[in-house]
Amino acid sequence: MRIIAQNVTQASVKIDDKLYSEIGPGYLILVSFTNGDNEEICDKMSKKLINLRVFPDETGKTNLSIKDIGGSILSVSQFTLYADIKNGNRPSFINNCLNPKQATLLYDYFNDLLKTYGLVIKTGIFGADMKVSLINDGPFTTILDSEELFKWK
Fold it and tell me: pLDDT tens, 26-59?
């Protein structure tokens, strides 16, 4: 599982030229799944994301979590985070991406987990053609990769 978490002052998703979701301060997250991902990985990744201390405190030091600031999360599925670009210049998605049916189930499960933390969680639509807008705050962007974070556990 991979997540790109961007600290934002605001973010939104349009689908078919209509506003579908929007948030104020918090995270815009891009979420992707690969073979072997499961609910246990989602559990670990949700805890890591929620507890990351990447928001500034009163002194400007990145010391606060999204819970601490009462932020919102806009979660957008993005299978291209697992694009294979080792051979040639055209990305391949055949070997690295979880099949859409399983990925949809995990995406829904992951977003439901995030809601249990008491934050406002908005989403896009899995597999839809979405237009994502954001104002990246900082800019501050963090990459969370379950393989790197938890492979030793």
Answer: 999 999 999 999 999 999 999 999 999 999 999 9
Tell me whether residue 78 is one of the annotated catalytic residues: yes
pTM (predicted TM-score): 0.93
Q: Is 6 labeled as catalytic in the residue annotation?
A: no
Query: What architecture (CATH level 2) is domain 2-150?
Result: 3-Layer(bba) Sandwich (3.50)
Choosing from 62, 80, 102, 116, the catalytic residue is 80
Active-site residue identified among 10, 78, 141, 142:
78
Backbone angle region of 54, left / alpha / beta, with phi > 0 → left and psi within -120 to 50 → alpha: alpha
Please say if 62 is a catalytic residue. Answer: no
